[in-house]
Amino acid sequence: MSSNDRRYVEIANLTKAYPNPFGRDIEVVKDFNMILHKGEIVSVIGHSGCGKSTVLTMVAGLNPISSGSLAVEGREVSGPGPDRAVVFQSPCLLPWMTTLENVMLGVKQVYPHGSKKERKQICEYYLNLVGLGDSMKKYPGEMSGGMQQRVGVARAIALKPQMLLLDEPFGRLDSLTRMDLQDVILDILDREKITTMVITHDVDEAIYMADRICMMTNGPEASVGQILEVPFSRPRVRSDVLDHPNYYDFRFALISFLEKQEHSKEAHDQMIEEKLRQPEPPALVEAKVVADSLPASGASF
Amino acid sequence: MITQTTDKPSHSKPVTLINFIEVWRYQPLPNEVVDDGQAGSLRLEKAIRIDDGVPSQIERSTTEIAKGEQIAGSAWQQESPVILQGLSSAEIQIAAQEADVPITAMLAIPIYREFILVDVIVLGLAQGNGGIELWTRDDRDELGISGSCYRGLESFEFISRFVKFPKGAGLPGYSWKFGQPRIIDRPQTNPDFIRSFDRDPAHIERCIGLPIGREYGFPASVLLMLSDQSTPFANEMDVWHCASESPTEEHPSPKIRFQNSHSEVGSEEKQKWCQTICDQIAETRSTVLISQGNELPPQFELGIAMPIFDGQKIKDVFIMLL
Fold it and tell me: For B129-230, CATH number?
C-alpha cells in the first residue's frame, strides 16, 4: 500500500471566512493543513473559539468552505453524507421517542432496503455496545446526560460511518462518566477501525484517545500550530498510559503550547483587529477617485 | 599549518559554538559542455579555525573531494545537510586535529542554485549548549525531524521526535512554505516558535530556519539552528532579503537592493558591510567567508554569508558574524 492509499482525509489550505460589514472578511480558520490516515484517531485541541468546531463542521460537510480543498477518500466534500457521522456535545435526542427509536431514525435512512428486523438488530447491537442494552425502551427524559450521550454515540456508529466526528462529546459529563464513555468509544473504534476526529479542550483526553494531536493556534486566522504523534500502542489501558514514563512529557508539550497561545492572545487580537479595520480593496466604481488621490508617478505611498 | 590572520581580542562577546568553518566550492569538469552539477568535484576554498574568538586560516590535508567523500561530499550526495556528532567519528577527529580546536559535532550545509550545487559549508561545533535540526517532508506533506544534534536540550529533544509541522506551521513550516530563512528571537516567549524549552538547562535565545535545496517547488528540507545565550552559533545573525530583481547570469543587473528582514540590524557600519557583502554575493553568486579583521565591521573577527537561491535568482542572504 502506497502512502497515498492510506490517506483518508486530505485538508489543504482550508479557510473559512465570514463577511464583515465593517471591513475585510473575517477568516476564522486560515490555511489549515492536515492529512488523516485511514483508521486513525486525531484529537484537535486549542483554546475556546479558535475554530476547532468550524474545522469539524467543514469536514462533516455541514459548513461550506471558503477556500482551499477538503477531500474525504479522494472525493471533494460538497455536503454531509452517511460516510461521516457527527456526535455533538449535546446529543439532541427526540424526547418523544425511545432510545431504540432515536437510533432507528438514522438506520432507516442508511439501510432502506433492510427488513425491519435487520434494522432493529443493528440498533440493538450498537446500543448493547455502548452499554444501554437494558435501556432501549427508555425515553431521553428518563436518562442521565451520560446515558443520553451514549445514545448519541450509538446513533452515530449504527450508521456504519467511515469517519466519526466527535465535537467535544464529553464536555457536559462528569469526570467518571467521561472516562467511562471514552473507554466505550475507544473500544468501538478499536473494533471498527473508524477514522476519527475528536475536538477537545482536555489535554489528558487528547493524549489518551488519539494517535495524533493537532494543536490549533488562536483564532481568528487559526491554523495548525503543530502536530504531536502519540506513540502509545492500542488497545490502550488508562492506567498504563498514565503510568508511562513519558506521559508527562506529552502533557507538558500540550500545556506549554496552550499557555504560549494564551500569552500571545493579546498581541494576536491586536494584529487581527488592525487587519480587519483595513478597508476592502476599492470596487471598480471607486477606482477613479482612488486614482485621483494617488501621489505623482514615481512617488511611493 | 596555522596562519594567524588577526590579533584582535574577543572582548566581552561570548565564545561562539562554531569553532571551525570550511567552504567547499563545486568545480565542474574542465571540458564539460553541459554542467549537470554531478560529475565535478568539491574544492576547498578556505578553512578557518576559531580559537577563543580569534580566527586563523588553516591548511587541510585534503583539498579536493569527490561526491560522497567526507562530510561535504556526503551532503552533496544526499542533497541535504549532514550532521555528524560524537568524538568517535574519524572525520571529526581529523578535523579537530588539523584545526587544533576541540570539535564535538560537524554540520555540512549544501547550497544549491536551482538543482546545481554551488558550495558546501562545513561548520565544526565546540562544546556548549544549542541544537541543530534537519526537517524533511514525509508522506503526509508534513515536516518531521530526519537529523539532529542537541546539547542541554534533553526534554526538547525527546518531544521533538514526535512533532510534525504542516506547511506554514511553526518555524520549519514557515521556511518550507515561503522558501525563506527566518530568525526568531526569544523563542521561549515568541508565539511563532511553538515548542517549549522550559524543562531544559539550555537558554535558547535565537532560532534560525534555513530552507535548503528545492523539490516540487518547495525547499527540500529546512535546517534549524537553535542558538544558546552563553554559546551562540555566532555573535550576530542576519537575513538580508533581495528587495529588487536579482540578476541571472543572462541578465546581470548592478542595481540590487537587499533589506535586512530582521529587527536588530546593528550598527550603521555593520549594515553597510552587510550591504557590501550582499552586493559581492550577487556578483559572485557564491558563499563569502572573510576572516581578515580589517575587512569586517568593528567588534567582529569573522563573517560568513551564504546565498539562498530561488531557481536561478538570489532570494536571500544569510549572514553570520563571529
Answer: 3.30.450.40
